[in-house]
Design goal:
Blueprint: H1 2-11, H2 15-19, H3 23-37, E1 41-45, H4 51-56, E2 62-67, H5 70-77, E3 85-89, E4 102-107, H6 117-127, E5 128-135, E6 138-139, H7 146-157, H8 168-177, E7 180-188, E8 194-201
Parallel strand pairs: 1-2, 1-4, 2-3, 4-5
Antiparallel strand pairs: 5-8, 6-8, 7-8
GO molecular function: S-adenosylmethionine-dependent methyltransferase activity
GO biological process, one term: methylation
InterPro entries: Methyltransf_11, SAM-dependent_MTases_sf
Length: 204
């Protein structure tokens, strides 16, 4: 994870500016998330600068928001005035929480940028309650228009760690193959197509 930490540490101060162009899409996403997390104990992994956590904190009972990048967490802590929200540096592949600790786990726009997303999903499944919900919105780059492909090319040149290029259909299939049942999915139009998903643990 060191190479990814270096990329995100280097770009932590620019992250919010980069995300600003998709503000309208993220507002829609917050509206989808808030009813799911209402009065729940929530974990967010790969929180970045805490955009999602800060926008949903009023709805939750408590939220732990984590990221592997210390610089991202430093940025996230700026302007956090809610006692219900705690930021910390954690490894999404080895979380320090007890099994079945959370009602909801959020992993947003992260599964496509890590080399072993299935490993992260196993760890998420461990800390999520049996009747809990996984919220996993992810950019599905394989559905890019030509301008999107050009943008992805230059992001790659800049060192952006993109490991998985899924279409929305491929992404949902990936989740199902890793023992998740998709209960809701919506494709939102952003700089890249954003597939919003809510999942529950599959019956084994």
């Amino acid at each position: 994870m060191r190479e990814h930490k270096n990329f995100w540490d280097r770009n932590a101060g620019l992250y919010d500016c980069f995300m600003r162009k998709d503000r309208a899409v993220y507002e829609k996403m917050y509206e989808l998330i808030r009813p799911v997390v209402k009065d729940k104990t929530v974990l967010e992994v790969a929180t970045g600068t805490g955009l999602i956590a800060k926008h949903i904190v009023k709805a939750v009972a408590h939220i732990e928001a984590t990221d592997a990048s210390p610089e991202m967490i430093t940025e996230a802590k700026r302007g956090n005035y809610s006692a219900k929200l705690r930021f910390s540096v954690q490894d999404m592949f080895s979380l320090p929480y007890a099994s079945k600790s959370f009602d909801v786990v959020i992993v947003s726009n992260a599964l496509h940028i890590v080399p072993q997303p299935e490993k992260s999903l196993r760890e998420i499944k461990r800390v999520l309650k049996d009747d809990g919900v996984l919220i996993a919105p992810t950019f599905t780059h394989a559905e890019n228009s030509f301008p999107g492909k050009v943008k992805a090319f230059f992001m790659n040149l800049a060192g952006f760690p993109l490991h998985s290029k899924w279409t929305s259909e491929e992404y949902l299939k990936f989740l199902q193959q890793n023992d998740w049942t998709v209960r809701k999915s919506v494709v939102l139009k952003a700089s890249f197509p954003l597939t919003y998903t809510e999942c529950v643990k599959s019956e084994v």
